[in-house]
Design the sequence.
C-alpha cells in the first residue's frame, strides 16, 4: 500500500518559490507509477498541477507549466514540487498523488502565500 | 471555470438513489476513461470509481459509474448519511500536451 506524506513551508511570500516534498513509503518510486501534485484552493475544487513518470517524463498543467517543476529523488524515495513566482492565487491545500488512476493521496498541506 | 461540468449540488433522502452528471468533450471524456473521487469534509479525496465503472477494493457496490459519449454519471443507491460529501469527476485530456482535468465538484447533501 502506497503512503504519501507532504512536507514544506506553510507560508510563502509573494514572488518567491513554493517548495514541497512528498515522502513515499510502501513502494519504491523507481519501480513504476506516476507521481504528482494536485491543489485545492480554500472552498474550491481540485486542480491538477503535474505528474512525473518513473521514467522521468513530466506532464504539467498548461496554465502552470511556465512556473512548475516536478522532480524525483529515488535515493530518498521522494518527489518534489517547485512553483515559482507565487501570488495569493496559489494559496491552497497541496496534495501529492500517485497511481495511474490517482489512486493514492497524501493528507494534504496548506500553503498560504502572504507577506 | 472547470473543463468538466458538474452540477454544484445534489441531494437525496436516506435510501434513495441519486445521480451526479459530468459533461466533457471529445478530447477528455469522449476519448479517455472517467474517474470519480469522494471528498469527505476536511479530508483528502478518495478514489471511488476508475476506468468509467470499476470500483477499487473496499468501495461499496452502492456506488456505480457509467459513461456515454462525452458524458459520465455517478450513481449512488441506498443513500446513507455518510455519503454526504463532495464528488469530483476527472479524465485525462488529450489537448495540448495532455493533462488531467476535473469537474468543479458536486456537494451531495443527505436530507
Sequence:
Amino acid at each position: 500500500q502506497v503512503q504519501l506524506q507532504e512536507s514544506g513551508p506553510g507560508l510563502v511570500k509573494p514572488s518567491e518559490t513554493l517548495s514541497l516534498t512528498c515522502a513515499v513509503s510502501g513502494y519504491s518510486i523507481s519501480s513504476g507509477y506516476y507521481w504528482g501534485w494536485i491543489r485545492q484552493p480554500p472552498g474550491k475544487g481540485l486542480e491538477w498541477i503535474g505528474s512525473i513518470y518513473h521514467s522521468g517524463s513530466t506532464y504539467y498543467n498548461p496554465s502552470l507549466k511556465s512556473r512548475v517543476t516536478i522532480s524525483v529523488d529515488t535515493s530518498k524515495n521522494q518527489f518534489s514540487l517547485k512553483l515559482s513566482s507565487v501570488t495569493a492565487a496559489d494559496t491552497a491545500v497541496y496534495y501529492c498523488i500517485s497511481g495511474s488512476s490517482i489512486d493514492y493521496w497524501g493528507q494534504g498541506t496548506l500553503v498560504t502565500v502572504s507577506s | 471555470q472547470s473543463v468538466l461540468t458538474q452540477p454544484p449540488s445534489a441531494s437525496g433522502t436516506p435510501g434513495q438513489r441519486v445521480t451526479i452528471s459530468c459533461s466533457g468533450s471529445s478530447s477528455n471524456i469522449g476519448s479517455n476513461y472517467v474517474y470519480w473521487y469522494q471528498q469527505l469534509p476536511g479530508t483528502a479525496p478518495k478514489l471511488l470509481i476508475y476506468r468509467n465503472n470499476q470500483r477499487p477494493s473496499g468501495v461499496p457496490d452502492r456506488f456505480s459509474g457509467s459513461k456515454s459519449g462525452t458524458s459520465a454519471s455517478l450513481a449512488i443507491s441506498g443513500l446513507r448519511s455518510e455519503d454526504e460529501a463532495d464528488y469530483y469527476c476527472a479524465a485525462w485530456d488529450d489537448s495540448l500536451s495532455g493533462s488531467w482535468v476535473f469537474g468543479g465538484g458536486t456537494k451531495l447533501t443527505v436530507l
